[in-house]
């Protein structure tokens, strides 16, 4: 009889011990998740020549990040991974746009495949024409899309890439298009020649952000 009671007590102790271990594991998991959520995120502003590219008040909004103009995308909260794999095109806003004019938006990476060896510059990530100024002022990017939005995808170990946004005033009655060769490839795009061909002139506003591969 004593042996049976001893056996039952051992089983009860083992069950309680297992429950305690499960509780500790759950507590650690919740604590880890909480610490990750509470992790501070520093949004470092660009400086030097990189900051000089940012002209005017062109605003680029991604979820949770707000306006990322002239900043490094921080690694915390998996922001670099999410901008590459999850988030769709950002909201574009230009409060100074003239309501009765049309605009052209270009997003391009001049650092493909790397800033030290940009043999595929410019990599075209987005090209939209016929954007009404009234829509830009309201943050609604409507127009004729010549190149669908392509998420930033800097290769591993290629360092920081600049993702640049240029906004041009579109000349009246100018029929803007990509040649068949340009449309067939996103890389090695002659951006300057495109701008000159369609008489776009200098950007009325421009901004950029820098990011790198999310595992680097």
UniProtKB/TrEMBL annotation:
What SUPFAM superfamilies does the database record attribute to this sequence? PEBP-like
What is the name of this protein?
A: Phosphatidylethanolamine-binding protein 4 isoform X1
Q: Which InterPro entries match?
A: PEBP, PEBP-like_sf, PEBP_euk
Gene behind this protein: PEBP4
Recall the taxonomic lineage recorded for the source organism.
Eukaryota, Metazoa, Chordata, Craniata, Vertebrata
Q: Hey, what's the signal peptide range on this chain?
A: none
Q: Which organism's genome codes for this protein?
A: Alligator sinensis
The family database entries (Gene3D superfamilies) matched by this protein are listed as: PEBP-like
User: From which domain of life does this come?
Assistant: Eukaryota
